[in-house]
Amino acid sequence: NRPRKFLFLAKVEADIIGFHMKRCNGFLCSADQICLICQIDFKYRQVRMMRTIDVLLFDDVNLLDVSGPVQAFEAAQIEGRRHYAMRYVSPDGAPVRATCGLRLIADDRLSAVSESDDLLVPGGKGVDALIQNAAVRDVIQQRAARKGDGRLISVCSGALVLAAGILIGSG
Length: 171
Prior knowledge:
This protein is an alpha/beta fold. The chain contains six helices and nine strands, in the order H-H-E-H-E-E-E-E-E-E-E-H-H-E-H. Helix 5 crosses helix 6. The chain is globular and about 55 Å long.
C-alpha cells in the first residue's frame, strides 16, 4: 500500500519513459535508461509547464467574465505550483472600463505575435464594438491559425468575438 503521491509519481514516470521511447524510437532510450537528449527535453517541459493566458480586456467587459476564469486558473495548482500565468491585454493597450465602471489596466496590447500560449475572450456589452474592430478580428484569426497547442478560450458572449475573428477575420 504505497501512498497516493507515490502512485501518481510512478504513473508519471511510466508515462515519461513511454514518451521518450516513442520519441527516440527506442534507439537511444530504453525502459531502464533515458538518453541525455530526452532528459534535457523533459527538464525543459517541466520548466515550461506553466501556460500564459492573454486575457482580453475591452470597454464594457463583464467583470465576472474576467474575474471568474482568472480565479479558476489561479486555483489550478498541483503541489503548490501554479500552472497558469495571466497577462491582461486590450485592443490598443489602453485602460478600459468594465460594465460596472471599474477601470482595468492592460499590461500590453492585443497582438498576433504574443508569447502567450492562450487567449481568453470574456463577454459583456462591449462585444458588439469588439466584433466590428477589424484589427481584433485579424489578431484572433492569426492566433487561431498558429501552430502548436495554443487555445482560444471564450466566456459567454466572448464566443461571438472568437467566431467573428475566425470566420470573418479582417475581411
